[in-house]
Design goal:
Distance between the termini: 44 Å
Largest sheet: 6 strands, mixed
CATH topology: Rossmann fold
Helix content: 25-40%
Number of helices: 9
CATH architecture: 3-Layer(aba) Sandwich
CATH class: Alpha Beta
Bound molecules: thiamine diphosphate, magnesium ion
Number of domains: 1
Shape: globular
Strand order of the largest sheet: 1-2-4-3-5-6
Length: 237
Amino acid sequence: MHSLFGNAAAVATGVFAAMRAKGRDTRVVAQAGDGGTVDIGLGPLSGMFERNDDVLFICYDNEAYMNTGVQRSGATPPAARTATTQAVGEHPGNVFGQGKDLPRIAMAHEIPYVATATVADLRDLEAKVEKAMAIRGARYIHVLVPCPLGWGSASKDTILLARLAQQSGLFPVFEAEFGEVTAVLPIRRRVPVTEYLQPQKRYAHLFGQTPDTETIERIQAQADRNLSRYHIDEVEI
Ligand SMILES: Cc1ncc(C[n+]2csc(CCOP(=O)(O)OP(=O)(O)O)c2C)c(N)n1
Ligand SMILES: [Mg+2]
């Protein structure tokens, strides 16, 4: 069923309720982008979590409203340039300290299962979908998906950037059950955030003739904080 932009969770809840009323055990999966999930669809999604409806909700997070021309969403990271957060003024790009960390918001609802994943590790993603489908109640999987057009990156770097997002610590890949983190993907080769940011034109203003070291350090501090917050191990291979 192709729902409206912002009501995937509401439609999934309705489908689940209708199937239950008919006595049918049909598994329900809802899928939406980050704008549809963290902004316009957040109310229905929070309700779906609160009622613990038997639905798996998957968010494909490319960190902006890409279909409509790269406008900022609540999932756009700080300093990123979008059509609505231009690289102008004293603090170019998106602001710090705003936006929504939806995996943590989902965890706060203490639903049975929350997981994050990226397109760089499809086996990990597949395992998480399989695990989620074996659980009943509200489940949420948040998948980081680079957007070459919106991020200003080469198409061939899509998987690489997804991997660097995890290996820099900026995008923690983990599982949580009933509000507690239960598993975290270790970092195989820790990279400074610059290795992830520099190939993306949405961050080009940070790397001009005089690099914006203050902003780069703030982004690095976010990655460092994730390592301690999620107890991410670094393993040598
Ligand atoms: C109710 C409603 N408002 C606005 C739109 C226009 N619209 C279509 S796609 C889109 C952006 C979607 O962004 P996101 O959910 O992040 O998905 P992406 O395009 O990035 O994959 C918008 C605003 C719409 N279709 N319906
Ligand atoms: Mg999007």
